[in-house]
Specification:
It contains 12 helices and 12 strands. The chain has 326 residues and is α/β, with parallel strands linked by helices. Strands 6-7-8-3-9-10-12-11 form an 8-stranded mixed β-sheet, with helices on both faces. Strands 2-1-4-5 form a 4-stranded antiparallel β-sheet, with helices on one face. It starts with a strand and ends in a 9-residue tail after the last strand.
């Protein structure tokens, strides 16, 4: 095991809505080592984005953190004041959002937006406009964007989706960051551009020796990018393993069901998917939240939440099939 950069312990978060209080994160625990690339995989609405936004403390006003801890590089994020959070967001962590169209301001040029991000980082010498220009040009070149000087003078709407996403990567890594969070950075791109963007993201993270949290729906994307993968379901981490171990053997019934949905080159028909749906967060099941869809459900599963237990070396699962007397 390496030195931990981020550690989330028993995090519980809900949202106030018109219908009532929704309990989304139900005791999430995870960590990222320094220099490690970690993938978080799960269905839409399972709490992936809520988890990473909590690390940056950028949750919406309706969110309520009701329990848990978040440590970043030895400091408790949940107890940081405004000045400490500014440093965290300026030089500690950067985030690449899902939709580059929404992430970039349409009324400012790319150059002015990159200049603001670089200046906010607090790096030495960035008060100088020429230094910021040089760093911006270099960052765009490193993400394989042609004619960076012209791009800096352009507005977001004048660029393609793939170019906008590369610009977001360049902005996130124009200055040194300890952690980069990428929230489904290829969702709105076609397949060929997806591959290019992911390769650029991976190479830039490795060159800068930064850690990476990659949120994705795709097990294939996680396999190509991450050293270790968390499988998330309905506000819980249900499995954690090194990437090779997870694809060799899935322990949790949800992970097994996810893997069975992947189309195979050998054919064999169309996968039917996982029966049922993620439970509502207004009145979630008291026990394992996957129990209503699981083939191995027992009475204990419906009443108690299974803990994340070590089954094999560096391979954990939250299921009574592997402990707890279920």
């Amino acid at each position: 095991m390496g030195e931990k950069l981020v550690q989330v312990k028993d995090l519980r978060i809900g949202y106030r809505t018109f219908e009532g209080y929704t309990s989304v994160l139900n005791g999430v625990s995870c960590y990222v080592d320094k220099g490690e690339k970690v993938g978080i995989v799960g269905e839409t609405g399972c709490g992936k984005t809520t988890t990473v936004k909590a690390i940056l403390r950028i949750l919406v006003r309706q969110a309520r953190i009701t329990g848990g801890e978040i440590d970043f590089d030895g400091k408790n994020v949940l107890k940081m004041n405004r000045a400490e959070l500014a440093v965290l967001r300026g030089s500690g962590i950067s985030m690449i959002f899902q939709d580059p169209t929404l992430a970039l301001n349409p009324v400012f040029t790319i150059g002015s937006q990159m200049s603001a991000v670089i200046r906010y980082s607090g790096e030495k010498g960035v008060e100088n406009k020429d230094v910021r220009q040089e760093l911006a040009v270099r960052a765009l070149r490193e993400t394989s964007l042609p004619d960076p000087e012209r791009i800096l003078q352009s507005y977001p709407f004048q660029l393609s989706g793939g170019m906008r996403q590369r610009i977001c990567i360049a902005m996130a890594m124009a200055t040194p960051r300890k952690l980069v969070i990428a929230d489904e950075p290829t969702t709105n791109l076609d397949v060929t551009i997806q591959d290019q963007v992911l390769k650029i993201l991976k190479s830039r993270v490795e060159e800068k020796q930064s850690s990476l949290i990659l949120i994705t729906h795709s097990l294939g994307v996680a396999r190509e990018t991450a050293d270790r993968i968390y499988v998330m379901y309905a506000g819980n981490m249900v499995e954690s393993a090194r990437t090779a171990s997870l694809f060799k053997r899935q322990l949790h019934p949800y992970s097994q069901a996810l893997m069975s949905c992947i189309p195979k080159l050998s054919g064999g028909g169309v996968a039917e998917g996982i029966p049922g749906r993620i439970p509502g967060y207004l009145n979630p099941p008291p026990g394992c939240r996957f129990a209503p869809r699981c083939l191995y459900t027992r009475e204990k599963c419906r009443q108690e939440q299974p803990p994340l237990v070590t089954v094999e070396e560096d391979h954990e699962a939250a299921c009574f099939l592997y402990g707890g007397g279920g």
